[in-house]
Amino acid sequence: MHKTIVPVGTHAVIMNTISYLCLFLSLVGLILTIMALTLQKSLWRLDMTKIHVYLPMSLFVGYVIFLVGIDQTQSRAICITSAFLMHLAFLTAFVWMGIEAYTLYLQFVKVFPSYTPNFIPKCLIVVFSVPLAIAGGFLVAALTGNPADYYELQNYCWIRSYTLYYGFILPISLIVTCNMVLFGYVTRKIWRIVSTKQGNEENQLGKLSVQLRATVSVLVVLGVTWLIGAFTFGRAQ
Q1: What average pLDDT does this structure show over 186-200?
Q2: Is this prediction's pTM over 0.85?
């Protein structure tokens, strides 16, 4: 059996095309999500809605910076700035995922009032302080030492080495792992709520469908699927 060998350059073109296409579709989806949630005043009053908006906003900023700055290797200063801002934006998105998981936990598992005074301002303090402390700490270390030890400056602008593993993979893995635990609690509560509804045997498949859709939705919302990226090492990173 003969294998078709695709040249490395062709691989790069294909991957770049797919990446930019997916990023474009993601940006469109994020814009539509933000518009759909912000244009409805009744929904905007809810804390969860605001979290749903701030999360895609963080991802949107990160994707735009990626499109503009990922290839700015001709200038070390611009390259480091682009990598730092992407690092900060994506960390912010994951912190919002953690807050979203915690909010779902309070709503479905814990018996708390639906309104918590100054909840969003408190979330904003956490969201801006934690990622800034992590990304800023590695940026200071890079500027006071050898930037090439912390940032990839040759082929593209992104984080590497200790910054990648301890400043990005480790914190998002901790967040997603916590989200997995909360996911278990929330999913169990959802299944209990749906299962307690009365109905005949014909409704059992419908109830199961609702349970499965709710489970998958929570799984994606809490970012559990991102945990797969933590196992990407080597040249694929």
Answers
A1: 64
A2: no
As beta bridge partners, residue 159 has: 151
Say how far apart CA 11 and CA 85 lie, in whole Å.
28
Residues paired with 152 in a beta bridge: 158
The band of 4, judged by pLDDT with boundaries at 50, 70 and 90, is very low
Q: What would the mean pLDDT of 148-155 be, rounded to a whole number?
A: 86
In the numeric block, which tokens belong to residue 197? Answer: 């509804």
Whose tokens are 């294909």? That residue is 14
Residue spans of alpha helices (H) in the chain: 8-38, 41-44, 47-69, 76-108, 119-144, 161-164, 170-195, 204-221
58 burial class (0-12, 13-18, 19+ CB within 10 angstroms)? buried
Q: How far apart are CA 181 and CA 235, in angstroms?
A: 31
112: burial class by Cβ within 10 Å (0-12, 13-18, 19+)? exposed
